[in-house]
Amino acid sequence: MVKQESESANRPDNTAFTQQRLPAWQPILSAGIVIPGFVLIGLAFIGIGVALFVTSRSIQVLELDYTGDSNGSPCSSCSQSVVTNCKCSLNFTLTTLFQGPVFFYYGLSNYFQNYRRYGASKDDNQLYGDLSYFTSPSSSCSPYDYDSSKKPIVPCGSIANSMFNDTFTLTWTVNGTTNNVPLDGKGIAWWTDYNIKYRNPSVTPLKNAFNGTVKPINWAKPAYELDASDPSNNGFVNQDFLVWMRRAALPNFRKLYRRIDASGDYQKGLPAGNYTIDIAYNYPVRAFNGAKKIVFSNVSWMGGRNEFLGIAYLVIGSLCVVMSIVMLIVYAKFKFPDEE
Amino acid sequence: MTHLVCCVSAEEERRVRANDREYNEKFQYASNCIMTSKYNIITFLPVNLFEQFQEVANTYFLFLLILQLIPQISSLSWFTTIVPLALVLSITAVKDATDDYFRHKSDNQVNNRQSQVLIRGSLQNEKWMNVRVGDIIKLENNQFVAADLLLLSSTEPHGLCYIETAELDGETNMKVRQSVSVTSELGDPNNLASFDGEVVCEPPNNKLDRFSGTLYWREKKYSLTNQNMLLRGCVLRNTEACYGLVIFAGPDTKLMQNSGRTKFKRTSIDRLMNTLVLWIFGFLVCMGMILAVGNAGWEKEVGSLFQSYLAWDTPVNNFLFSAFLSFWSYVIILNTVVPISLYVSVEVIRLGHSYFINWDQQMFCSQCNTAAEARTTTLNEELGQVEYIFSDKTGTLTQNIMTFNKCSINGQSYGKDTHNTCRLDFSPFNPLADPDFCFYDDKLLESVKVGDSCTHEFFRLLSLCHTVMSEEKSEGELVYKAQSPDEGALVTAARNFGFVFRSRTPGTITTTEMGRTVTYSLLAILDFNNIRKRMSVIVRNPEGRIRLYCKGADTVLLERLHPCNQEVMSITSDHLNEYAADGLRTLALAYRDLSEDEWEAWSESHRFADKATDCREDRLAAAYEEVEQNMMLLGATAIEDKLQEGVPETIAILSLANIKIWVLTGDKQETAVNIGYSCKMLTDDMTEVFIISGHTVQSVRQELRRARERMIELSRGSGGGVGKQLHGSPLPPPLPLSNLMDNISGEFALVINGHSLAHALEADMEAEFVSTACACKAVICCRVTPLQKAQVVELIKKRKKAVTLAIGDGANDISMIKSAHIGVGISGQEGIQAVLASDYSFSQFRFLQRLLLVHGRWSYLRMCRFLCYFFYKNFAFTMVHFWFGFFCGFSAQTVYDQYFITLFNIVYTSLPVLAMGIFDQDVPDHRSLEYPKLYEPGQLNLLFNKREFFICIAQGIYTSVVLFFVPYAVLSNATQSNGVPLADYQTFAVTTATALVIVVSVQVVLDTGFWTVFNHVFVWGSLGSYFIIMFALHSQTLFRIFPNQFHFVGSAQSTLLQPVVWLTIALATAICIVPVLAFRFLKLDLKPQLSDTVRYTQLVRQKRRKPPEGRLGARGGSRRSGYAFAHQEGFGELITSGKNMRLSSLALASFASRHSSSWIDTLRRKKHTHTPPSGRQMTLKSIF
């Protein structure tokens, strides 16, 4: 009896798992699946490609460079770094309606927001409104953590310090009258940035929270005075600040500046006419061969204009179809020996 | 006594004085404690860590960890490295500790065995480890010898004792040892206690068959030889007790000296992997350099101008230093091309495969109740690459059981196929019958019963002409002690057929013949020797008639028959051929009547020869020759040396899988050759079997050369002829000799003797030996020592760079098992030492085919698929950083979130590939056995080699290019539908990461060929876990707790809601996968592998086809006499002088598909002909 028990103890279990006989699906790349599969994928891609291409074509984009590095351009005088508080203006003409909603972007080129140390140079606790980090910013902000008199900088770090500070106003001239185009700066930042990631300390007035700290070196105004017109748009939740703090992945990027407020004359977008953009040119970029531009664009369901995506889909789709034909020929010629 | 303390390092000679511990201690000889373990509790941690950090990989990761602790360099948090590293180190440490624990246990068990030591005149029980050199110990019957002993005395007369040396050299014959005559009289413990002889002998060495020393005692010198020694590992048999003086103890014993050092075994994939890791490391350095140079350029051209927004760090005040730091930063972020999880996963997969081996019911032997065991978990995939198998014979191929299987009496053959007649019951007929004896032909029993005189004489001969000793504990309960199992089988057969050998004295033999007790007087034993190949006895029966009974090899015996036997002889000869073809060991039996005068005359000449002082041997042989003439043929016996179950089939299948099998045995040439035939390694169809048995360097060299010349000559003849027939083209021009040796087409076999092998293994001849031996289909090395076994294995490892497997069951196989790439121990037999030294163990040789062709093949396949995918995956993952470097000022900015980098290899992509590496099957197990050719890719290392590796990383790099540049092109100008640009870093990171996870998941879906439920769960689960974990890491909750750690709050949600992002991912996936899919489909169509074909046919459920049957039945062939096989000379003398002895033989099951090799050759040639692909050829390809 004991012996029998021990025998059964030594015998391995007879289960599908231990004997490697688990039921299994064993796919094979058979012609019946692969060739129709390729045709289907190809057709689907071509379909999507056409849709994307057509949609993308309908989107209007207007780009205006205002760096001023060539002498003839309107802002060339401002681009000399010695000039401060320089103003210049750009003119453009729309012959047809610029379909709304219209977005107003500023763009920078050759600007490395994706540089590792640049990206790390901020203090998330501070930006989350934690007052203890106001007085002792994280060392990751160095060299923008303390000013020369050892006072803490709030908000600290390279990103904040290098905040884009050109400002724009857009005017529309029609029939001799000049109208200010209303620009909407609300909700241009990510919802999570505005509501969760960045917070002002719960101190009123906000100014008091910044006692004992100094503004970033490059800034003209402290954080709590960023938007004089709207007290709630100050501190770390200032929309422009949030947009800037969401750093770009690539060295040529654009960021949302404003939306054209779709009201009154501008309900359908920007009507035809002459426009002027008045620029407060504060942000020097010529030192590092950068460029600045202004972009107007509208969007579709798939966002802004994106011709690459449509073309790529068309190319890949056609290649799939071509491949399926090649495979069909090969298959017919060297038929798999299934009679074996 | 000049050399008192000289002996530790280079002992020149050993002095041992009996019963004098103080004296012997001066020499500091090793104690009898053996230690095979590596660590103890204190040394474990430092030694183990030291060993682990000798692994390049571990040191590399430690180095990375240190780099990550430097803030200026650290592009990734330190925890990305330390967590996996600690995990790896601790898992390995636990495993090593467990292994060592078992080694401690087995050492302890051996060290604590009890032995009786003579201390101060009395016998005391001592543990083995406390036995010292110079002690006298007492051994009892069936005990293991504790150390190398000088036999002093025994309870048997003349100081004889019998030992079995199976553990030592694999021979199961009993051997006789005799003490020096002066000490044999010492007898009882009291006398021994006062024995104070001193032995001066050679230092410890590994020569099992040689010993030289001198015993000084009472002012006299006695020379000592191996005949006086009992070696550790032997077992005392048939001897009540004996006393011995310990000469060598513990590690100095010949057994331990013969066991090679424990070596850490690595698989060739391991070695390749290490090379590749080094290459990758080089690649990493190159990438780092390129990026550092880029960084230097960027800092100089752009960064220096960009300082108003991005000031250089104070320590980083110039671009060269920045480039230097950037180099190290990139080393850190690019190190994920070889993540630690690679090593962990490989180990896990191997562990899984090991469990599958342990769990396999088809490798479970119910008779001995043992399952197969993978004792080493790190070698599994190498099982799929074996090219050479070195097998022991006794206990591995054979069961070491001899059975009387067939006989031919007076031209009538008896003994049928075991399947169609039932076993005879002897008990009603013969109360003395051995109940274990099996015979199946009742005709023979009838013939005995009716009193056929020839049959009676036949069995009478068997009961008289032998050297067996009998022991009758109680009436009728006979135990035979035979020197060799085949002689025992013959005497037992006679016993069952009514001619029972009861007892013998030096001058008489008593038998019970058909119930009647008869005593013969034994006049002479004409003993066996290797040259005579026969033995005879001359007996006088109670009636006074003198008769000579002779049994011997048919070749010698048939020549000495009386001419009137012609007719019987030709029939018997046919029978002998038949038996031999069945692989049975045959003996011919004959008798001769001697008249009183003849006997007197011969007896006189014999006595004269016996007394001669010079050339005694020759004179005796001549005298024997004189009387063994004009004999009357009685018949022939056929004895089966029982093979283990399924041996010929296994060997046939393994050789179909292109595995070469060498038999290395301590047995005699004849025995080994016979087994070669019975397990179909040697066949009568073979072109030629070469026997190398030269005793000198020159003769061995000459024999080898002759064999080669012969092979070239013959293969030119036959191979050329066949070639012509096949493709009708002229012969290819003659190749240089070395190439010729690789292209030998005939079937040859090589048999080499131990003493010749010793010369063949010398440095200047080994190349010749290898080239000759490897051109042969089968190689048998006989009379080899354990060390030679290891040397042969080492030689093939070195010269052929092939994967070797050694399989054996005895202690004599340990060194071979240890030096081969894979050692397999046969368990379930008595000795377990081989199993302890082995990497795999199971109880039947036939399980080897399953181990190699099923488990090995799968393991190899899985491991290769795993590695290919793993390298692909990590290149795809990591190289994205490289491309990004060109757009981020070479600042070592990672593309992905650091949590993604930490989890990618551990969580998101580890399980699907693990499941593939553990469960994947291309064809089911029975197909692997059906089509042994499926094994070939492993031997040729086709599935993972440097080329495959480059293909994988090329694919990985291609994928990384797609994964970076597609999002780059799409996102740089894209916006969300609410106008917010998508080109921010976090969106880009999430998009790329998601695309990466999806692409590599789709790739693993393509690579997985066998979708079990685990694969489904793991693939979809991992994909799901990616999204779940990402959403969790990007959630508000975590951010609120650690605002500083989770920068990506909200990114997942915001990104993945964008249709553009999904379109980007779909596009990237299509660009990555579509070419792969097309390529694989075309490859499958244009160049299908055998496994593809098998799988395809399997899946379409087409009618199965079996490989064509080989020619059935065996042709008659060379006869092999069993008599000579295991017998030793000198026992006849022992008997007639009142001492003792024994002999042996064997057989097999007929296996159909032989000649396999010849049809494979034919096929190969066909493959090389350039006939256009046709259905017929496809058939052939797909089958082989």
TrEMBL record, chain A:
Organism of provenance: Haplochromis burtoni
Family: Belongs to the CDC50/LEM3 family.
Subcellular location: Membrane
Residue intervals passing through the bilayer: 28-54, 311-332
Keywords: Membrane, Transmembrane, Transmembrane helix
GO BP field: phospholipid translocation
GO cellular component, one term: Golgi apparatus
Superkingdom as given in the UniProt entry: Eukaryota
Name this polypeptide is given: Cell cycle control protein
TrEMBL record, chain B:
Coarse class of the protein's main subcellular location: membrane
Keyword Metal-binding: yes
Family: Belongs to the cation transport ATPase (P-type) (TC 3.A.3) family. Type IV subfamily.
Residue ranges annotated for the P-type ATPase N-terminal domain, each copy included: 16-82
Annotated positions binding Mg(2+): D392, T394, D809, D813
PROSITE patterns tied to this protein: ATPASE_E1_E2
Membrane-topology descriptor: Multi-pass membrane protein
EC number: 7.6.2.1
Cofactor (UniProt): Mg(2+)
Cross-referenced InterPro entries: ATPase_P-typ_cyto_dom_N, ATPase_P-typ_P_site, ATPase_P-typ_TM_dom_sf, ATPase_P-typ_transduc_dom_A_sf, HAD-like_sf, HAD_sf, P-type_ATPase_IV, P-type_ATPase_N
Assigned keywords, A-Z: ATP-binding, Lipid transport, Magnesium, Membrane, Metal-binding, Nucleotide-binding, Translocase, Transmembrane, Transmembrane helix, Transport
Gene3D superfamilies given in the database record: Calcium-transporting ATPase, cytoplasmic domain N (3.40.1110.10), Calcium-transporting ATPase, cytoplasmic transduction domain A (2.70.150.10), HAD superfamily/HAD-like (3.40.50.1000)
Compartment list: Endomembrane system; Membrane
Transmembrane feature ranges: 60-89, 276-298, 318-344, 866-887, 899-919, 949-970, 985-1006, 1018-1039, 1059-1082
Catalyzed reactions: ATP + H2O + phospholipidSide 1 = ADP + phosphate + phospholipidSide 2
Top-level enzyme category: translocase
Entry annotated with the keyword ATP-binding: yes
Protein name per Swiss-Prot or TrEMBL: Phospholipid-transporting ATPase
Single GO MF descriptor: magnesium ion binding
PANTHER family reported in the protein's UniProt record: PHOSPHOLIPID-TRANSPORTING ATPASE ID, PROBABLE PHOSPHOLIPID-TRANSPORTING ATPASE
One of the GO biological process terms: phospholipid translocation
A single Gene Ontology CC term: trans-Golgi network
Residues the record lists as binding ATP: D392, K393, T394, E487, F528, K551, R585, T665, G666, D667, R783, K789, N812, D813
Taxonomic superkingdom: Eukaryota
